[in-house]
Amino acid sequence: MTSEPVPIRPTAYPVPFLVVRPAPGRVRLVNRSDDVLRCVVFLVLGPGVLGADVIGTVEPGGVIETSVRGRELARSTSLVVRWLRPDDEEYLWRIVF
Fold this sequence. Notes:
Layout: E1 17-20, E2 26-31, E3 37-45, E4 49-50, E5 55-58, E6 63-69, H1 73-76, E7 78-84, E8 90-96
């Protein structure tokens, strides 16, 4: 009985974003990859409040930005970024303040 080799997927995918923090509670993400990232959305974990719902497509070199309000964000709140790569694979990345 012969078995087919199992394809090995890469174990690591570099996060495509450069994080810029222009002001307390503000997060700007720059797409530093060659991929068009679709359905990019921000979610908040903890008691912080998301400034606005942002859902969008971010081209290579493009920017998406949001803000989070709240007290002691660094102690109790984190921001999660969700996006789809061109192959429709979903990714999540957590950012702490």
